[in-house]
Write a structure and sequence with these properties.
The structure holds 2 protein chains of 2 kinds. By secondary structure, chain A is of the alpha/beta class. Chain A has a domain of 261 residues: 3-Layer(aba) Sandwich (Rossmann fold). Chain A is 33% helix and 12% strand. In chain A, helix 2 links the parallel strand 1 and strand 2. In chain A, helix 2 packs parallel to helix 5. Chain B is mainly alpha-helical. Chain B has one domain. Helix content of chain B is 70%, strand content 0%. Chain B contains 20 helices and no strands. The chains are: A alpha/beta, B mainly alpha. The interface between A and B is medium-sized, with 15 and 17 residues. Chain A: Pathway: Glycolipid biosynthesis; glycosylphosphatidylinositol-anchor biosynthesis. Chain A: InterPro entries: GPI_transamidase, Peptidase_C13.
């Protein structure tokens, strides 16, 4: 039959096609994976977590910050890459009925203080100036490493701020404010110095959306707990401790983050849905127009975790052992000069015996003349000219 | 009378020299009651030091003395203590001679009025006799030299003593009748501190009285003499101010001295009334209240002139007292000057009503000034209100003294012309009331 040979050829062709398709599919799978590997451009993660209020009744702000700290640490960011700024000490506050604890849920279910909290900026060190110096890197050389944000242009930075704020400002320590303009300029400095790859800015204060209104640097995504004109509310008071323990927005964010693990694929759009108005009373806002990637493609762990991309290879590499060009140069011996004694360098003798130049002031001659002429005139006017002949 | 005066001068100089040598001198020099920003010796030294360094002494609001003081102390700064002792002695001598002459005038006038039968018949006990008036000049000199206030001012080397000397010479010239010298010294006194301007009126009245020119607005000779005197005064003032310009070749001293006196920028506590008010006043009211307070000093001249035109010396005394109470930076040295005049009116003693209260107030306040200062500044257990309360009480005491003497004087004048036993038209006894 003449039809069977072409059928076999067709099957072979179909098989070849299928194989080709499979190969293409496999190749595209690798491609996909490769693409996924290089999807986000960051290689390290940093977190700057700031609580700006002091006093016992602002317990909840410290609890907010510590909750985010705890989540971020659990998801992999080490303490060396977290700058934690707490404006007041709640755990050891004399008014804390449960010392060395900071609870984030009523009935004391979750102690966010724990055993391994590393606070980098504490108490009065949390100032606007220090915060901006941390962000921009303009820090005095004596600052210890733990207080520095040593990010580079491949760092994804999470910045979380909480406290009391208003339309366009955030209050630090009840004595100063940072404005949204200052913050935007600080981020621009960071961009120009290549200090971040992508930045996620979360703020939980009243009228928080005003703080991200002024950003103008690329690759910034911002979330806020309330719009301009709205207050962010606290979640629940604990009657045993006597204060409100958390703010609503951060409470629900914490709840959301508790379900994230280092391998989850949850993306930013889910974070935007956290805490709708029914739960939060305020309307959370977000801003993504400066961000280059689609929030759909941004994983939560891109910012909250420190997922390392690891490539395993079985090849051996040989390091170049061409060290021939390196010569150690010894410094040429300089002519040894006589060591100078201190006293000889300083002309002390001259200084001691120097008399200060006296610039004496003398009344001008005209004045003296005029004065005495007047006095003599008055004298003779009173006592008569007839005395003149006794004088001359 | 020269011998007792010489003895008195010697005693005064001894007391002052002894105090200069003791450790109290530094303590007294620091006291704010004695040294005001206008008259403190530290500031004079500072100003002269600035001048030696080639800087205008008026830069920096430290030095508020006139250029003539600069000239005086430029040569005499090493002998400062001697200078101040001599000025005190000169003041005492000037007052002595002035009151001696004044007593003669008073006595003459009294004699005239008795002969003209202007006095009521039963006022023999009110007439001053030469016997009791004999020691008054000495008492005046004594009161001035031995007054603790004067001694403290001298020991503190406050330039208030120099102002007092010029004023005393002015009074001497006025009483001697020389309009020219009186105008010159008045110009000098005004040049030193602005307030003796108000002494123009009593001096004018005295000189008019001496020349027997009646004080009537229609009288031509009255206006002529007034204009002459005013012209002399103003010309001398202008000459002195212009001469001061030539000392430093700048008009800096005008805002530094007169601007300072009038606008009261320095609110260091003193025995006056200005500092506390202006320390707690809002900015936009301060101009208004400065004007009010300064007008208060000059305000009493015209009414007093109208009331006391027959008695210009008493007017002078009241005016000096008003100046030293209401001036912007008073010190106890100013108080000492008018207190020196009290023996002149010792015949008013029987009409004074508040002697005990007054002396208590003045003594207690003088004692409490350093106590409350210490409590306020050093111990920190009092505050400025305490010190100001004592200042207020001191000034109230002074005002009480002046008004008491004023009332007593008027009473005596009334009794002299109407008799000691006043009766109402229906024959019952009447009482004199000051309204």
């Amino acid at each position: 039959m003449a039809a069977t040979v072409p059928a076999g050829g067709r099957v072979r062709g179909a098989a070849a096609l299928l194989l080709g398709c499979c190969a293409a599919a496999l190749a595209s799978g690798v491609q996909d994976q490769a693409e996924q590997f290089f999807r986000s451009g960051h290689t390290n993660n940093w977190a700057v977590l700031v609580c700006t209020s002091r006093f016992w009744f602002n317990y909840r702000h410290v609890a907010n910050t510590l909750s985010v700290y705890r989540s971020v640490k659990r998801l992999g960011i080490p303490d060396s890459h977290i700058v934690l700024m707490l404006a007041d000490d709640m755990a050891c506050n004399p008014r804390n009925p449960k010392p060395a604890t900071v609870f984030s849920h009523k009935n004391m279910e979750l102690n966010v203080y724990g055993d391994d909290v590393e606070v980098d900026y504490r108490s009065y060190e949390v100032t606007v100036e220090n915060f901006l110096r941390v962000l921009t890197g303009r820090i005095p050389p004596s600052t210890p490493r733990s207080k520095r944000l040593l990010s580079d242009d491949r760092s994804n930075i999470l910045i979380y701020m909480t406290g009391h704020g208003g339309n366009g400002f955030l209050k630090f320590q009840d004595s100063e404010e940072i404005t949204n303009v200052e913050l935007a300029d600080a981020f621009e400095q960071m961009w120009q110095k290549r200090r971040y790859n992508e930045l996620l800015f979360i703020i939980d204060t009243c009228q928080g959306a005003s703080m991200y209104e002024r950003f103008y640097s690329p690759n910034i995504m911002a979330l806020a707990s309330s719009q301009v004109g709205e207050d962010s509310l606290s979640h629940q008071p604990d009657l045993g401790i006597g204060v409100h323990l958390m703010d609503r927005y951060t409470f629900y964010v914490l709840e959301f983050l508790e379900e994230i693990h280092p391998a989850s694929q949850t993306n930013m759009n889910d974070l935007f849905q956290v805490c709708p108005k029914s739960l939060c009373v305020s309307t959370p806002g977000h801003r993504t127009d400066l961000f280059q990637r689609d929030p759909q493609n941004v994983l939560i762990t891109d910012f909250f975790g420190s997922v390392r991309k690891v490539e395993i290879t079985t090849e051996t590499l040989s390091l170049d052992s061409d060290l021939a060009g390196f010569e150690s140069k010894l410094p040429v011996d300089e002519l040894a000069t006589e060591p100078l004694k201190y006293a000889e360098q300083l002309p002390v003798a001259q200084i001691i015996h120097q008399k200060p130049k006296q610039k004496d002031w003398h009344p001008p001659g005209g004045f003296i003349l005029g004065l005495w002429a007047l006095i003599i005139m008055v004298f003779f006017k009173t006592y008569g000219i007839k005395h003149m002949k006794h004088v001359f | 009378m020269a011998a007792p005066l010489a003895l008195l001068l010697l005693a005064a100089v001894t007391v002052r020299a002894a105090l200069f040598r003791s450790s109290l001198a530094a303590f007294i020099a620091e006291r704010v009651e004695v040294a005001s920003p206008l008259s403190a010796w530290k500031r004079v030294v500072e100003g002269l030091a600035l001048l030696d360094l080639g800087v205008s002494p008026y830069s920096g609001a430290v030095f508020h003395e006139t250029p003539l003081i600069i000239y005086l102390f430029h040569f005499l700064i090493e002998y400062a203590e001697l200078v101040f002792m001599i000025t005190d002695a000169l003041t005492a001598v000037a007052l002595y001679l002035a009151i001696q002459d004044f007593n003669k005038v008073v006595f003459k006038k009294q004699k005239l009025l008795i002969e003209l039968d202007k006095y009521a018949p039963d006022v023999a006990e009110l007439i001053q006799t030469p016997l009791e008036m004999h020691y008054i000049p000495l008492k005046v000199a004594l009161f001035y030299l031995m007054n603790p206030y004067t001694v403290m001012s001298c020991v503190a080397k406050s330039t208030c003593a120099i102002n007092n000397t010029v004023t005393a010479f002015f009074i001497l010239a006025t009483i001697k009748g020389s309009a020219f010298l009186s105008a010159v010294f008045l110009a000098l006194a005004t040049y030193q501190s602005l307030y003796p301007l108000t002494l123009f009126a009593p001096a004018l009245l005295y000189l008019l009285q001496r020349q027997f020119i009646p004080v009537k607005p229609r009288s031509k000779s009255f206006w002529l003499f007034t204009l002459q005197y005013a012209a002399l005064y103003l010309c001398s003032l202008v000459v002195i101010v212009c001469l001061s310009f030539f000392l430093l070749n700048s008009w800096d001293f005008i805002p530094a001295v007169y601007g300072f006196i009038l606008s009261v920028p320095d609110l260091t506590p003193n025995v006056g009334l200005f500092w506390y008010f202006f320390a707690e006043m809002f900015e936009h009211f301060s101009l208004f209240f400065v004007c009010v307070f300064q007008i208060n000093v000059f305000f009493y001249t015209v009414p007093l002139a109208i009331k006391l035109k027959e008695h210009p010396m008493f007017f002078m005394f009241v005016q000096i007292a008003v100046i030293s109470i209401f001036k912007s930076y008073p010190t106890v040295g100013d108080v000492a000057l008018y207190m020196a005049f009290l023996p002149v009116w010792s015949h008013l003693y029987r009409f004074l009503r508040n002697v005990f209260v007054l002396s208590c107030i003045l003594v207690v306040c003088s004692v409490l000034f350093p106590v409350l200062w210490h409590l306020w500044i050093y111990a920190g257990s009092a505050n400025s209100n305490f010190y100001y309360a004592i200042t207020l009480a001191f000034n109230v005491g002074q005002i009480l003294l002046v008004s008491d003497y004023f009332y007593a004087f008027l009473r005596r004048e009334y009794y002299l012309t109407h008799g000691l036993h006043l009766t109402r038209p229906d024959g019952t006894e009447a009482v004199l009331v000051l309204k």
